[in-house]
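ok here's the first one, seq then struct tokens
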Amino acid sequence: MQDFDKFIAPAVAGALRFGRTELRVAELHAAGRMRQETGPPMLTSNRSWHLFAALVLLHAAGVLFAPAPLAPLVAASVYLPLMPLQQMGVPVFGSGESGGWAAPSVLGWAAVVAVWAVTWWAVAQLGFGLWRRVGSSRSGEGV
């Protein structure tokens, strides 16, 4: 009974004041099925981390084991992020072979990894956010 007075009753009373959505949140908290978020909801989702990891692994596999038809696309994914940095004077390319493309330097590879990590993180967050929003609107909970 002490738990009810201490935790559940205030949650239910508060929810009744503010409407149905708050009542559902109070019920989930009381039942222990809703975890406390310690940061923004999009940063604490395991599903978005899994999507991010899958996108990064697919991109890395494409760079490391690119089939011939995808080679131009893979080269573009490496060299296009480096072009603006080169124009700003950042040494992102090593010494080039005569008549060929210069390989990225260590700084260049770090820049490529950073650019694509941020890109895939944003895609994962937006994708999961849209998926969650569509799922909640289908279940009638609203956004």
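and now the second one, same deal
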Amino acid sequence: MPHPSPVYTRIARAAMSCATAAATMVWSGAAHAGSHGWSRSVHGPYGHGYTAQRQVSRSPGTATASRSVQTDSGHGYTSTRTTTRDDGTLTNTWTRTYDNGKTASRSGTVTRGEDGVTVQRDVRTASGATASRTTTYTPGN
């Protein structure tokens, strides 16, 4: 099997760094368990404005962050990011749903096994296009 290109190697290292940071956040969940959030509403003198909210909750093995934005003119979205950890697998999913009903999503899973580390990435755009990539990094390569 040929070696991955330097670009994909950098992407994989960045993905592993993000996964490590997310895992640290999730694995330390017992110390930071709970939820918090905020809500903000801003309106100008001519009827223009928006309302935004964010909520974060953590429990051992899981962290979820939700955000919604709604403008006074009727445009907006809701997005949710969830990170979970279970037996050598770290999964991060992100979904954004727009007011018109269209949805975009990304997910990534990093799994550590005897043969190395497998990284699975999936993307779905609001227009419906999809992409998927799975890469396994073995020790010594």
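notes on #2: The beta strands are 34-43, 49-59, 62-71, 76-86, 89-98, 103-113, 116-124, 130-137. Residues 34 and 58 are 5 Å apart (CA to CA).
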